[in-house]
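Example for tutorial group B:
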C-alpha cells in the first residue's frame, strides 16, 4: 500500500480582537459576525434552509457545512434541533475544516460570545472533540451524530459518502479564501446532495451564484444579515426524494468484540438483532482479561496506519459515551510508552508528524519518570493509551433490549434464499433473515467458502503474573506489551502459527517474560504464580480487516487480528451506517482498503 500524506494537521493562525472576537490572520477575516454570531447563524443558515420547518416529521436529517470554524453554526443548529424535534428524531451534521481549532481555542473563541443556554452543548462538543488526525471523525452526541473532517474541503468531500438535505456554505469569503469556493468543491456539493437538498450562504458573489446554478440548484438572492445587503439561498431543481428502506430482520454470527459492537450499533438504531454464538460471549480472542488500546506505529502513514489511528480515536470517544450511558466494564487510561524493537529507532516514528497531544517523543530518563521504573530506551508516549476488559465490554454491549442472544448455537451453513439469507444451525434448525453479518473471526472462512478471502490464524498466549514492586504507572509496548491491571500484570502476546491447540505452555510464558525484561531492565517477577490464556486470532496479509457487504444482504466484520479492540467498533459503525443509509464515518479510499472484495470475487 502506498503511503498517504503525513498525519500533520495544521493549526489556525488565530487572533482575538480587543472585544474577544476571534479572527483568522491567514485569511484576514472574522469567524462570525460581531453583530451577533448566533443570530447570524439563525438568519443565514437556519431560515435560509427553511429550518426547522423541514425537520418536522423527518426521522433523520443531514446537514453539511463547509468551514467548521469555531463550531458556532453547529452549536446553534444542535440547540434548535433539540428544542423543536421529537426525541425519536436524529440529526446528522457533517463539517470540514482545514485548520481546526484546539479545544482550548474553541473554549476561548466562545468565552465572550456564546449564549449561556448553549454552554452545555459546547461542553459536550469539547468532551467529545477528536484527536488532531487528518480525515473524518465521528462524534456520537445525544440525538446527533457530528462527522468532522480535518483537511482540505476539496479532498475530503471527494472521499465522503452521504445524502445531504441542507448545506451551510460558510467558508471565509470568496475574495479571501477562493479555494473553498472552487468549482471542484461545488461539484462535490452537488454530488452529495439529496434529491430535495437546499443551501444557504452569506455570500452573494456572482461567481458562486453561477457555479451553483451550473450544478443544478435554483438560486435566488435574499436579504443578508446585519450590514450585508444580500445573501444566496436555493434548492435542487425538480427533484423528488425517495425514502430509503431499512432492514427488518438482522442476524449477527459471533459474540466477540466484532459481533457485540455491530449488534449494539444496530440495536441503538432501533433494529431487532439476533446474535448467534457457537459457545459463549467473548470465548475467543475477546476473552482475554485485558486488551491494550493503541494504534500500530509505522514509519509511514499508510492506509493501515490511518485505519488504526482512526479506529483508536473513535474507540476513545465510544468508551466515554458507553460509560455515560451506564454500560459497566473495566477501563483504565494510564497512558502508554511505545519503546522501539531492536530493529527500530524511536526517531523513526517522527515522520508520521503526529500532534504532540496524540504522541510525543520522550528520552529514556523521561520515559522512566513516566513509567515509575527504569526502561530500556527512549521512546514515544501516548497519553490516551488505555486498556480495557473485552469480556466485560462484550457482555455490557449485548445486554441491549433490542438484542436476542443465543449462546451454544453453532451455525452449520448459510445460503441465499430469495431475498433472505437462510441460516442452518448445527441442531438442524433453520432460520432466515433479511440481513446477515458474519463476525465470528477464524470460523468465518468455513461459512464463506464461496467468497474466498486471504486469512490466516495465529495463536496468542498472554501471561498473567502478580504485580511486582515498585508499581508500573503506564502501559509498556515493545515487542509485546505489559499492562498494569491492578494487582496483576498481563504480558503478551505470542504469535504462533504452528500450534493451534489452545494450550498454555511454559515456553510461551518464557518468551513473554524475556520481552518484558528487555523493555524493563532489572525487573523482578514472581514466576511461580504465573498463569496464562491462549486464543486464536484471525489475520489478513495487509493487517487490514474485511468490513462491508460481501453479497446482497451479506456483510462481514472479520480479520481484525490483534487490533480488534480499536478496529471492530469503527467497523461496527460503518456497517450500521451503510445499513441505515447514514453518512459513512470513513473516507472512500479507506473503505475500499477494508472492503471484503478488495482481492477476490465470489465464485
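The residue assignment follows.
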Amino acid at each position: 500500500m502506498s503511503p498517504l500524506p503525513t498525519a500533520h494537521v495544521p493549526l489556525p493562525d488565530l487572533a482575538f480582537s480587543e472585544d474577544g472576537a476571534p479572527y483568522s490572520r491567514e485569511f484576514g477575516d472574522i469567524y462570525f459576525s460581531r453583530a451577533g454570531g448566533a443570530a447570524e447563524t439563525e438568519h443565514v443558515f437556519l431560515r435560509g434552509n427553511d429550518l426547522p420547518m423541514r425537520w418536522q416529521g423527518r426521522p433523520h436529517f443531514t446537514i453539511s457545512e463547509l468551514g467548521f470554524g469555531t463550531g458556532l453554526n453547529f452549536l446553534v443548529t444542535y440547540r434548535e434541533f433539540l428544542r423543536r424535534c421529537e426525541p425519536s428524531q436524529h440529526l446528522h451534521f457533517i463539517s470540514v475544516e482545514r485548520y481546526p481549532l484546539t479545544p482550548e481555542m474553541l473554549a476561548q473563541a466562545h468565552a465572550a460570545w456564546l449564549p449561556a443556554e448553549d454552554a452545555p452543548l459546547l461542553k459536550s462538543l469539547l468532551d467529545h472533540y477528536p484527536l488532531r488526525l487528518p480525515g473524518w471523525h465521528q462524534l456520537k452526541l445525544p440525538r446527533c451524530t457530528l462527522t468532522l473532517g480535518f483537511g482540505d474541503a476539496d479532498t475530503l468531500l471527494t472521499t465522503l459518502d452521504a445524502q445531504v438535505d441542507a448545506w451551510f456554505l460558510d467558508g471565509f469569503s470568496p475574495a479571501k479564501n477562493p479555494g473553498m469556493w472552487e468549482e471542484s468543491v461545488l461539484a462535490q456539493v452537488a454530488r452529495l446532495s439529496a434529491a430535495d437538498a437546499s443551501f444557504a450562504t452569506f455570500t452573494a458573489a456572482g461567481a458562486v451564484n453561477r457555479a451553483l446554478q451550473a450544478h443544478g440548484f435554483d438560486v435566488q438572492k435574499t436579504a443578508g444579515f446585519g450590514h450585508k445587503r444580500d445573501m444566496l439561498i436555493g434548492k435542487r431543481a425538480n427533484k423528488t426524494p425517495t425514502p430509503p428502506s431499512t432492514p427488518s430482520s438482522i442476524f449477527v454470527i459471533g459474540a466477540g468484540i466484532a459481533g457485540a459492537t455491530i449488534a449494539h450499533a444496530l440495536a441503538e438504531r432501533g433494529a431487532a438483532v439476533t446474535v448467534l454464538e457457537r459457545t459463549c460471549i467473548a470465548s475467543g480472542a475477546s476473552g482475554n482479561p485485558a486488551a491494550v488500546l493503541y494504534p500500530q506505529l509505522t514509519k509511514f502513514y499508510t492506509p493501515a496506519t490511518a485505519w488504526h489511528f482512526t479506529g483508536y480515536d473513535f474507540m476513545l470517544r465510544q468508551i466515554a459515551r458507553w460509560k455515560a450511558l451506564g454500560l459497566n466494564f473495566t477501563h483504565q487510561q494510564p497512558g502508554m510508552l511505545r519503546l522501539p524493537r531492536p530493529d527500530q529507532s524511536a526517531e523513526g516514528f517522527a515522520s508520521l508528524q503526529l500532534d504532540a497531544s496524540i504522541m510525543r517523543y520522550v528520552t529514556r530518563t523521561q520515559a522512566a519518570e513516566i513509567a515509575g521504573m527504569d526502561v530500556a530506551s527512549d521512546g514515544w508516549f501516548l497519553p490516551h493509551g488505555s486498556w480495557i476488559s473485552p469480556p466485560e465490554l462484550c457482555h455490557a454491549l449485548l445486554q441491549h433490549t433490542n438484542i436476542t442472544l443465543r449462546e451454544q448455537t453453532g451455525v452449520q451453513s448459510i445460503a441465499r434464499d430469495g431475498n433472505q439469507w437462510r441460516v442452518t444451525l448445527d441442531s438442524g434448525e433453520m432460520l432466515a433473515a433479511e440481513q446477515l453479518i458474519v463476525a465470528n473471526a477464524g470460523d468465518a472462512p468455513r461459512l464463506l467458502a464461496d467468497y474466498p478471502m486471504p486469512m490466516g490464524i495465529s495463536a496468542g498466549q498472554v501471561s498473567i503474573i502478580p504485580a511486582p514492586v515498585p508499581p508500573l504507572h503506564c502501559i509498556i509496548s515493545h515487542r509485546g506489551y505489559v499492562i498494569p491491571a491492578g494487582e496483576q500484570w498481563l504480558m503478551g502476546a505470542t504469535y504462533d502459527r504452528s500450534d493451534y491447540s489452545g494450550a498454555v505452555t511454559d515456553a510461551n510464558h518464557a518468551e513473554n517474560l524475556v520481552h518484558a525484561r528487555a523493555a524493563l531492565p532489572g525487573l523482578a517477577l514472581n514466576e511461580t504464580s504465573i498463569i496464562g490464556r491462549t486464543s486464536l486470532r484471525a489475520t489478513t496479509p495487509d493487517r487490514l480487516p474485511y468490513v462491508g457487504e460481501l453479497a446482497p444482504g451479506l456483510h462481514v466484520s472479520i480479520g481484525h487480528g490483534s487490533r480488534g479492540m480499536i478496529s471492530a467498533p469503527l467497523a461496527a459503525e460503518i456497517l450500521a451506517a451503510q445499513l441505515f443509509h447514514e453518512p459513512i464515518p470513513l473516507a472512500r479510499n479507506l473503505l475500499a482498503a477494508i472492503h471484503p472484495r478488495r482481492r477476490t470475487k465470489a465464485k
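The CA atoms of residues 12 and 542 lie 36 Å apart. Compare this with the pattern of hydrophobic and polar residues in the output above.
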